[in-house]
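Hey, can you fold this?
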Amino acid sequence: MAVLVAGGAGYIGSHTAAELVDNGEEVVVVDNLVKGHREAVGECRFYHGDLTDICFLDSVFSENKIDSVIDFAASSLVGESMSKPLDYYKNNLISVMNLLDKMKEYEVPVIVFSSTAAVYGEPENIPILETDRTEPTNPYGETKLAIEKMLKWCEKAYGIKYATLRYFNAAGAR
């Protein structure tokens, strides 16, 4: 059984994939390489393609025994999302809809979703609590919050368990 790491050639995804491999997990990485780097993937099985392409995603699931998904794939620049909102909605929402569709079809029971603290907008309190009000101020945050809601409904309808990670900007080196 394998863990599918979507966006696994990016900064956070490649570190996660490497840690999984170091812990003996079989890892399958999917990335469109728009922002990621092939050399960051290391020893993992790698598929170059786009999650908005359902046929591509079907080939990944049909060729591998996926038992969980970790999704780091997204358009993620706040400023760019303000000038290209439709691009962000198309990429971020359709990608996760396709992942969930294939997870349902192939009976993959769990996903960890990389969300963002941008779902909170301008915080009323510091530190921000997970239970604080969500009110995104940009399309990027809106897409992530919409996906969180989609995950909630897919858990109710299909039993797909999920966890979301609402972190701030990550920085470092590989």
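Oh, and this one too while you're at it.
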Amino acid sequence: MQELLTPVRQSYGRCAMNPNFIDYFYEEFLKSHPSIKPMFSNTDFKKQKELLRTGIGMLLAHLEGKPAGTMTLDRIAESHNKQHMNINPNLYQFWIDSLIKSVKQCDQKFSPDLERSWQKVLRAGVDYITARYDAPAS
């Protein structure tokens, strides 16, 4: 996993330089599945975009073994689990696909190898979150 994280982190850095990166993501994500857009009907998107930026960075930090990343993913897992927001684990693939489409649009160094790295990294983070979907309320 570690060998995948460096190119993904570099790619994310290039994407983050594009002021439209997060907008591209939400444009893709909200239309990717009929049940997703209604989940965001009362969302403050200015705040949500910052949460996404932070969340991606913390997902990478978690996979790098940094405790702050793991603590953040634990909070995300709890807030998205069955007891709280009840985000169906099957919907996370749409999140991954939308994010990769946005990376492809914003990273001038995007390649098939980089796409595979992004897929594996995001899948590892999503698997960590969805493994806690059925966790009892704390």
